[in-house]
Design goal:
Radius of gyration: 20 Å
Distance between the termini: 12 Å
Structural class: alpha/beta
Largest sheet: 5 strands, parallel
Helix content: 25-40%
Bound molecules: calcium ion
Number of strands: 12
């Protein structure tokens, strides 16, 4: 499946150049020339969009304004572009929820490398998406199927919900309480170590697969789904 990128840049020359480069890398590009257009296109295509490349200086709603509006409801990765190289700008961009930041002029190869890093880290973070990918693991909430590379893994409902919670937060340390609330609900009044029991079940199901080492114990805290290393990334 092609990855769709929303490209927001008012300078026509750069927009055309980047659109061509991204298309050449086999991304589907939705080019926009203004913040308003970006919000309209995002609203229309948010299910497909995996990444936004967002110029800071735009006429009308600027890049920061676009980012803030999108961040109210969506977790889609955003790379900000700017001609200004102030540390203060970088900080406010990152504070507003940008995932990365690139200063113009830049080498297209550098932008492409950053795109690949972000897409590997979280191919899908959009909360409305039904498919989650972390490294070699893929999970589809509609069909309730889980794949490690191409091998399907059969999980019970509880194991599935546990893995889903991990895949919604790749690379984040989740405490036992976090997992208990997400999977068993806040009204669950059993023992918190049920989490450890189910993590063990889940690891068992994954142990013959390429994802065998992905659920890591963070001693004294909880667990995390390890960001896949470069070799395992899809
Ligand atoms: Ca601009």
């Amino acid at each position: 499946m092609k990855v769709t990128i929303l490209l927001v840049e008012d300078e026509e020359g750069l927009r055309t150049l980047l659109s061509a480069e991204l298309a050449f890398e086999d991304y589907t590009v939705i080019p926009c020339a203004s913040g308003e257009d970006a919000l309209t296109q995002f609203a229309a295509h948010q299910q497909e969009i995996s990444l936004i490349i967002l110029d800071w200086m735009l006429p009308g709603i600027d890049g920061l304004g676009v980012l803030r509006k999108i961040r109210r409801h969506y977790d889609v990765p955003v790379i900000m572009m700017t001609a200004r190289d102030y540390v203060g700008d970088k900080v406010s961009g990152l504070d507003a929820g940008a995932d990365d930041y690139i200063t113009k002029p830049f080498d297209t190869e550098e932008l492409l490398a950053r795109i690949r890093v972000i897409l590997r880290r979280n191919v899908v973070k959009n909360i409305n998406d039904k498919k989650f990918h972390v490294g070699p693991l893929a999970l589809d909430t509609k069909t309730r199927q889980v794949f490690a590379a191409d091998a399907e893994i059969q999980l019970t409902q509880r194991e599935f919900d546990l893995l889903l919670t991990f895949m919604q937060h790749p690379g984040e340390v989740l405490t036992r309480d976090d997992l208990l609330d997400a999977v068993w609900g806040t009204n669950f009044d059993g023992q918190v170590n049920i989490v450890d029991v189910y993590v063990r079940y889940l690891r068992n199901k994954l142990k013959e697969s390429v994802a065998s080492q992905m659920i890591q114990t963070i001693r004294g805290v909880g667990y995390k789904l390890g960001a896949a290393d470069e070799e395992n990334a899809l």
